[in-house]
Hints:
2 domains; single chain; nine-stranded antiparallel beta sheet; Elongation Factor Tu (Ef-tu), domain 3; alpha/beta; five-stranded parallel beta sheet
Amino acid sequence: xxxxxxxxLSGGVDSSVAAYLLKKQGYxxxxxxxxxxxxxxxxxxxxxxxxEDVLFAELVxxxxxxxxxxxxxxxxxxxxxxxxxxREYKKGRTPNPDVLCNREVKFDLFVKEALKLGAEKVATGxxxxxxxxxxxxxxxxxxxxxxxxxxxxSYFLCQLSQEQLSLSLFPLGEIEKxxxxxxxxxxxxxxxxxxxxxxxxxxxxxxxxxxxxQELAAKKGEILEIPKEKESGIRYPEGLPPDNVTDxxxxxxxxxxxxTPKNGTHIGEHSGAHFFTIGQRKGxxxxxxxEPLFVLQxxxxxxxxxxxxGHDHPGLNRKGLFIPWGEDHWVRKDLKMEPGDDRELLVxxxxxxxxxEAGLFARLEGxxxxxxxxxxxxxxxxxxxxxxxxxxxxxxxxFE
Length: 400
């Protein structure tokens, strides 16, 4: 008897080809489309409307000869993902809804719906791989980077658990994107030339301030420029910290620069500090400067936006970050660090960022991640994911 697999068919080319590959491999494939968002407030016209997505998904299912089903998860999606976004932006933090969506919706609520259809496994079009190994008689599921280094999406899966991985299949893990397009064109799938979706998971590309104004009010505030003084600023030691690094040094290396109004010069106004993110360049709307302006710090309490000129501004580039206990997550719980542990791993703080050499230092209050090279735009609320070679073993929400 064929194993039954439910594929999350999204209306994009990746999940379409994933469905085809599963069928080719001999699985009994069932398509399930998620309706997760209906409101178009702030959504840029033509970007990822669900009604168009479901049409493409249905056309692909028909072409492949697989049953097609839909499920409406818009209620829990709003509670678990969108409301979380609003809360984080209100605090002056920048969330990553795609990571949360995978943990809370795609690989939780969606999986439960798939199991109702009799699925033994659930598949998606992610460019990532799962490898099984046995340690001490126990099966361990390893989350590995996709073979296509330009499309590797393991970062978005950094909050998944062993149980979630045990139920998952990623048919595109061994394939590169051009091959996916080629297969789709060869099969004459409706999604073959369709653009990849962008923006917020299941919402699409949005005008963020307009989208956030559903919950967060616009409010004028000051923009203060922090001068870039080349002869001063923080001096970070080069390379990774030594084995005898002190807790005091770790706190210094992982801390952001803190500005106050007396540090800056008034250069304009904004419509709400919570609409911005650290490292942002667009939307400041102040010209006439020698170099581009970037957001250095948000003060949502006093509604002040601190900005500075140039990629090399000392306030934009940091040596490390901090993740408190409780905000850490271990895909490989058997590799979890305990207070006092130090480890050299590879880390990324955003999707598609090349992996960075870093030292992880577990202490009583949490994990300090100190990089070999300075990192631009470390952003509270985002996820840092750490790898041992190709394997993603853990992640955490950046506190500072």
